[in-house]
Specification:
- Helix 1 packs parallel to helix 13 and helix 3 crosses helix 13.
- With 342 residues, the protein is mainly α.
- The chain has a single domain, classed as ABC transporter involved in vitamin B12 uptake, BtuC (Orthogonal Bundle).
- The chain contains 14 helices and no strands.
- The longest helix has 35 residues.
Length: 342
């Protein structure tokens, strides 16, 4: 009993430290940029708006803080946390450290949905809806293929994801082939590379309800994710309804990933690399790992997004920087943990 208390207390300490680091980084990222603000100015504006005090600050500072940077910072935190949380769940339930949120086809499906919206000259909000629908549709197709073959094995689901991702990539290639090179093709390519440039308050509010609901369900199921990570036969022996539990995990993870991708575009490596950092810090128990992975994902993507805003004269797409960081870091993790890929 004492070891459990110590373990729970250790988890709480880790989560509190990570949460404090995230809050500090949020304040820093709200201040830095081409148009810089001081922490005191940011706090004064927040307090003034919260308590309806008379405005004693520059209106441009308020517009920059509340209208531009705050929605972007919140979006970066939720997208990073959602992708990392989904990656940790997938790696747990499929017992594979190389699994990421994209492997069921959600990202490629969202790309197709967004590309169709851009091709049809949809509004920004309609493109987000189209991307979300494309991601959900791709995962639904991935799940239906094993059902049509009357198989509920993990291997069949993974293979179905590869099939659907390949098909969606071909469809996306065709859309890019017929797109206008001067306008539509550039917009599709930029969307594929990921960016928060066009994120506003409405976009953030559109993903918050589903993201929070899916995240809460996953946190509540963290113990069952531990059971699923033992393998199908062991989980069934312990009385778990493997098909139902795995289905709920996939649905919630898909909602998190699709919600993230629809407002930011595709952002790679976070769902693959961040869960490993979470295991290094909080261990393999998903009751401690999942919150830690979500917090680390939010910290990582927020830091990367801020870096893309300030390191050059023009803003860099996020996936370029996450790839430059993620690839060597993952190689180092593979070497450090001596993973055996079977």
């Amino acid at each position: 009993m004492e070891s459990k208390k110590m373990s729970s207390r250790t988890y709480r300490i880790i989560h509190v430290v990570l949460f404090a680091a995230l809050l500090a980084l949020i304040l820093l990222c709200l201040c830095v940029g081409k148009y810089s603000l001081t922490p005191a100015e940011c706090i004064r504006i927040f307090v003034g708006k919260l308590f309806h005090l008379q405005a004693e600050w520059n209106p441009m500072d308020e517009k920059m803080l509340l209208g531009v940077r705050l929605p972007r910072v919140i979006a970066a935190v939720f997208v990073g946390a959602g992708l990392a949380l989904s990656g940790a769940v997938y790696q747990g339930i499929f017992k594979n450290p190389l699994v990421s949120p994209e492997f069921l086809g959600v990202s490629s499906g969202a790309c197709v949905g967004a590309a169709v919206g851009i091709l049809l000259s949809f509004s920004a909000a309609a493109i987000q809806v189209s991307a979300f629908a494309g991601g959900i549709g791709a995962v639904a197709l991935t799940v239906l293929i094993p059902r049509a073959m009357r198989s509920d094995s993990n291997i069949m689901l993974v293979l179905s994801g590869i099939i659907v991702s390949g098909a969606m990539s071909s469809v996306l290639g065709f859309i890019k082939y017929i797109a206008d090179p001067a306008t539509e093709l550039a917009a599709i390519t930029y969307w594929q590379l990921g960016s928060f440039s066009y994120v506003d308050t409405d976009a953030v509010l559109s993903i918050l309800p589903l993201s929070l609901l899916a995240g809460c369900v996953i946190f509540a199921m963290s113990w069952w994710v531990n059971i699923l990570s033992l393998g199908e036969q062991e989980a069934k022996t312990l009385g778990a309804n493997v098909q139902l539990l795995r289905g709920v995990c996939i649905v919630c993870s898909t909602l998190l990933t699709a919600g993230a991708v629809c407002i930011s575009g595709t952002i790679g490596w976070i769902g693959l690399v961040v869960p490993h950092f979470g295991r290094m810090i909080a261990g393999a128990d998903n009751r401690g790992l999942l919150p830690a992975a979500g917090l680390i994902g939010g910290i990582f993507l927020l830091a990367v997004d801020t870096a893309t805003r300030i390191i050059g004269p023009a803003e860099m797409p996020i996936s370029i920087l996450t790839g430059m960081i993620g690839a060597p870091v993952y190689a180092w993790l593979l070497y450090r943990q001596r993973m055996t890929i079977r």
